[in-house]
Design a protein that fits this description.
The protein has 572 residues and is an alpha+beta fold. It is built from 14 helices and 22 strands. The strands form 6 sheets. Strands 1, 14, 15, 17, 18, 19 and 20 form a 7-stranded mixed sheet that branches. Strands 10-11-12-3-13 form a 5-stranded mixed sheet, with no helix packed on it. A 4-stranded antiparallel sheet has the order 6-7-9-8, with helices on one face. GO terms for molecular function: peptide transmembrane transporter activity.
């Protein structure tokens, strides 16, 4: 569903298209070598705890990119966002499994019209914002409208917008009436679609549908205090330093079976070095502490500590729907054969070591995996053990215009990503290419990748599966076209666009069918696109997240990639 920083729902070839994978490469499974399967089983700490009260202290190495649900495409914001905003439906996590879509603000998963072109939702009775004002259908509509103002909200999720029947709308600040949603009364929301969309309930679990009271909208400043519709509200927020959430006494638990809301408060420290986070959690210096940082904030050098009995019994774990990749900027590295040569030269087994080894994730052979609905075998020439194929890479480059220098950008909060760059430097040096490493502030990382400063190569991550694991939730955001199908999509970091394949993806968005049927078509198109190597799959993450000894119900979300804050509790 979202970017993994430290990590979106997608849309759904016309039925008559015949799609075949490119020849010459061998089918491969979704992951390479690794420990036996049970080594990746989910581990939940303090399961089924129901005690209320106490404080959870969330240790983080950097601030949230944003707390504004309407400007967020990040798993960390989605995770903490569960505490202070609600959406029409919700992606409910279960450790080790793709999430399930359940009703949240709405009474059910929606009612489609006979032709599939409208979906109608009814809000539950008695819903209120933190100030006591009722939550109405107009607040839902306004929340969606804000995400159309792309000149203001550069990271607003767009998958829902792509499906709605109003491409000309530019947001609520420029005037005009939004025709994609009707609100016939205070509890009814009617969505108008361009074409039928079988999995529409998944789209309205996105943060677009978090209600926003128009009178409280402060545009970009809204991130400082989004108005709560969930069980907690922001008491204080010192950007880059700390935040405190307290109970929202206007939240009615009877309307919300999805969030346990056990702790009285959540405190966040937002500038602790990852090495310090790792040390504090392992030492249990704060028995109420957790982290949302990637891989539980653990450093590769800390892996042995996980074997200690006291640490092991406090380590939640789970194989995620999150995969890290290398993105090639197809606007600067234009030749597909050059990109393939670079991909073959990467020592992915050495990259896995920088992630902490097999304990921290499987080698991935594809961005999609066999747990996702509609998965079909993918074709790749990458070695399943991760070893480089330098001889093949050099042959591909013969007679080609090969760049002498390339730039690799990485998020600066985690030394792992710089170390990956060092591996790439060594690999590409053998091809006669000088790779320069460029640190990018973590807080602005994906904004940079989406803008004019995108380097030649960058690491990114994606947590797919917010609609219970459909293939399209990974393919369309990462390699799909723009809303109108004329260029690459807003979260398509490689800037991949092929007139034939991208057009087929655009048409597939409006094709009706089951998730399995559509997923197979998405997977086939993805396989075709990947023959030009716009990206290189690296690691499918297994997160080990050490928690304080008083923390309970600590599960690693398949989608969130960190401790699921909506169910966590604390013994006190």
């Amino acid at each position: 569903m979202k970017r993994s920083t430290m990590a979106a729902i997608a849309l759904t070839v016309s039925a008559g298209l015949a799609l075949t994978a490119c020849g010459g490469a061998k089918p491969t499974p979704d992951s390479g070598s690794g420990p036996r399967a049970d080594a990746y089983a989910p581990v939940v700490i303090g399961k089924n705890y129901t005690g209320k009260g106490g404080n959870i202290n969330v240790l983080m190495s950097s601030d949230f990119q944003t707390l504004d649900a309407g400007n967020s495409n990040y798993v960390q914001t989605a995770n903490v966002g569960q505490l202070y905003y609600r959406t029409l439906t919700m992606a409910k996590e279960t450790a080790g499994k793709p999430p399930t879509i359940v009703p949240d603000l709405a009474t059910d998963l929606g009612k489609p019209s006979a032709d599939g072109l409208t979906w109608t939702y009814t809000l539950k009775a008695g819903l209120k914002f933190e100030d006591g004002t009722p939550i109405t259908s107009k607040d839902i509509k306004y929340g969606v409208e804000r995400t159309y103002a792309r000149d203001v909200y550069t990271q607003a999720p767009q998958e829902l917008n792509t499906a709605l029947a109003d491409d000309s709308y530019k947001g609520p600040y420029t005037g005009g009436d939004f025709k994609g949603i009707d609100t016939p009364d205070d509890r009814t929301v009617v969505f108008h679609l361009k074409q039928p969309f079988a999995e529409f309930p998944a789209l309205v679990s996105r943060s677009n549908t978090a209600p926003v009271p128009k009178a409280k909208d402060t545009k970009l400043d809204y991130t400082n205090h989004p108005v709560s519709s969930g069980p907690y509200k922001i008491q204080s927020y010192d950007r880059g330093r700390s935040m405190k959430l307290v109970r929202n006494n206007q939240w009615n638990a009877a309307t919300d079976p999805n969030r346990t809301a056990l702790p009285d408060t959540f405190t966040f420290t937002l500038s602790t070095a990852q090495a310090t986070i790792s040390q504090q959690l392992i030492a249990d210096s704060d028995p109420t502490a957790v982290t949302l940082d990637s891989n539980g904030g653990l450093q590769a050098s800390d892996a042995a500590e996980l074997n200690k009995p006291d640490v092991k019994k406090r380590t939640a774990g789970g194989l995620l729907g999150c995969t890290d990749v290398l993105d090639f900027n197809t606007e600067t590295i234009k030749d597909p054969q050059v990109r393939k040569a670079l991909a073959l030269a990467v020592d992915r087994s050495a990259v896995q070591v920088q992630y902490g080894g097999e304990r921290f994730g499987k080698l991935a052979q594809s961005y999609i995996n066999s747990a996702q609905r509609g998965y079909v075998e993918q074709h790749t020439d990458l070695d399943p053990t991760g070893k480089p194929k330098l001889d093949e890479a050099k042959k591909l480059l013969k007679g080609k215009s090969v760049p002498k220098k390339l730039v690799y950008g990485y998020a600066d909060a985690n030394p792992r990503y710089k170390n990956v760059g060092t591996v790439l430097q060594q690999n590409f040096k053998q091809l006669g290419i000088d790779l320069q490493l460029r640190p990018i502030p973590t807080a602005n990382y994906y904004t940079v990748l989406a803008g004019d400063q995108m380097p030649d190569i960058a690491r990114s991550g994606w947590c797919g599966g917010a609609d219970s694991g459909s293939v399209r939730t990974t393919v369309d955001p990462n390699l799909g076209p723009s809303v109108d199908g004329t260029t690459y999509g807003f979260s398509n970091i490689p800037r991949y666009y092929d007139p034939k394949i991208s057009r087929a993806m655009y048409e597939l968005r409006g094709t009706n069918g089951t998730s399995e049927e559509l997923g197979k078509k998405w997977a086939t198109l993805f396989d075709q696109a990947m023959q030009t190597y716009p990206l290189v799959p690296l690691i499918r993450s297994y997160t080990n997240s050490v928690v304080g000894s008083k923390v309970r119900n600590a599960q690693v979300g398949y989608f969130f990639g960190g401790i699921d804050l909506s169910v966590v509790g604390v013994q006190h």
